[in-house]
Amino acid sequence: MLVLITYDVNTETSEGRKRLRQVAKQCTNYGQRVQNSVFECVLDAAKCREVQYKLEQIVDKEKDSLRFYFLGNNYKNKVVHIGAKKSFDVEGTLIF
Q1: How many Å apart are CA 3 and CA 5, to the nearest integer?
Q2: Which of 10, 34, 38, 69 pairs with 21 at a CA distance of 20 to 30 A?
Q3: DSSP string for 37-94
Q4: Residues 23-36: what's their mean pLDDT?
Q5: Which DSSP state fits 29?
């Protein structure tokens, strides 16, 4: 299923900037960045729980925000992209 992960991390302190880097790094392990704090991730249920758990361990729930949008398996007709940063088909063939 396609899961959109968005986050807003308070970066007023050095600890906040560290959390921001950690959240972004974890998200890159599961999907592709489509905007500064937005990742598209194709995940099964177990991977989704895994990334959610890992991100919850990083963020400060009093200062930061995480959102998970579950677009399901038929997501291709639910996503419209306009503008820069064309994305690639995350389920397509990769050529090295």
Answers
A1: 6
A2: 69
A3: TEEEEE--HHHHHHHHHHHHHHS-TTT-EEEEEEEES--TTT----SSS----TTS--
A4: 94
A5: T
Please report the DSSP string for 19-38 in residue order: HHHHHHHHHHTTSEEEETTE
Rounded Cα gap, residues 71 and 40, in angstroms:
10
C-alpha closest to that of 32 among 22, 21, 43: 43
Q: Of 84, 95, 79, whose CA–CA distance to 42 is shortest?
A: 79
Give the pLDDT confidence of 51-63 residue by residue, as tens digits: 999 999 999 999 9
Structure tokens at 65: 């925000």
How many Cβ atoms sit within 10 Å of the Cβ of residue 17?
13
Write down the pLDDT at residue 71: 87
Answering whether pTM is above 0.90, one says no
Amino acid at 79: V
Residue at token pair 């972004």: 24
Give the three-state DSSP class for 95. coil
Identify the three-state secondary structure at position 9: coil
